[in-house]
Amino acid sequence: MIFINPKTDYAFKKIFGSSESKDILISFLNALIYEGNPTIQDLEIINPNLPPKLEGLKDTYLDVKAKLIDGTLVIIEMQVLNVQSFGKRVLYNAAKTYAFQLEAAQGYRLLKPVIALTITDFEMFADSEEWISRFVFKEVKKNFTYPENNLDLVFVELPKFIKGQEELESLADKWIYFMKNARSLTSVPETMDSIPEIHEAFNIANQAKLSREELEDLDRREQFIYDQQGAIIKAVQEGIEQGIEQGIEQGKRFEKLAIARQLLSQLDNATIAQVTGLSVEDVQNLRSTNS
């Protein structure tokens, strides 16, 4: 079997956000948000897009959005590319989802919690080795939680998850292994196939079930991602190389200035410039600074 890549937006929405995905999404959210406990018993998958209610406000496009039976809203986003200000975008989407629950004249008591689950194919928090991170409002000195803590940010960083099939223990382990490795698998691992929701996720991800048009669209999306990742890597490498070159040039300049400083009491500006390779203006500025 060949499986589509769950990390592409189309595949992610098809697996977790379609009409047949409710049980899959419940298992996925219980695993990543509630440590595998069956906290979520039921939910409703709803339109993930948040059109602006105010003129001039940005549109918001999410991958999957669900409402739990207690009214809690869960927004889920799979992000492959580490684009500029992505962390701010996550917070903006969560705050917008929270604020736009109310219509005019409705009381704040009607506001329900919002959980933003973000899965990234890159590292966001370099200072942490944990692959699941959770952020809530807390008091800085005493570390107690804000009484109306209705915004919850959960991040899953796929590159930090390095377990192999034989090491998978928790439900979260198995779901993240699916997210990270389904594209490279040719069969469903036995340790995961016993979980009905993961079995069904693999079934939906089976490439044989897609039309040729869907496969071509998926190929284009994957190629775009690979091209963008390549462009980012190239830009980083060029930045490093440029920084090294600038450092070397700066070091040479410091060396010239140090030599010139020793010659100030012995030679005139033009001669020092000729000896060191500095400009006459550089030497004059150096002389003024040291006078």
Which descriptors would you attach to this protein?
291 residues, alpha/beta, 2 domains, 6-stranded mixed β-sheet
3D structure, described in words:
The structure is a single chain. The protein contains nine helices and eight strands. By secondary structure, the chain is of the alpha/beta class. It has two domains: about 10-210, no CATH class; about 210-290. The strands form two sheets. The protein has a six-stranded mixed β-sheet, sandwiched between helices. Helix 7 packs across helix 8 (about 270-275).
Shape: elongated
Mean pLDDT: 85
| Percent of residues in β-strands | 5-15%
Q: Helicity, in percent? A: 40-55%
**Radius of gyration using CA atoms only:** 27 Å
What kind of sheet is the major sheet? 6 strands, mixed
Going by helix content, strand content and strand pairing, the class is alpha/beta
User: For the largest beta sheet, what order do the strands appear in spatially?
Assistant: 1-4-5-6-8-7
Distance between the termini: 79 Å
Tally of structural domains: 2
Q: Which residues form runs of ≥5 with pLDDT under 50?
A: none
Helix count, per DSSP? 9
Order of helices and strands: HHEEEEEHEEEHHHHHH
What's the count of strands? Answer: 8
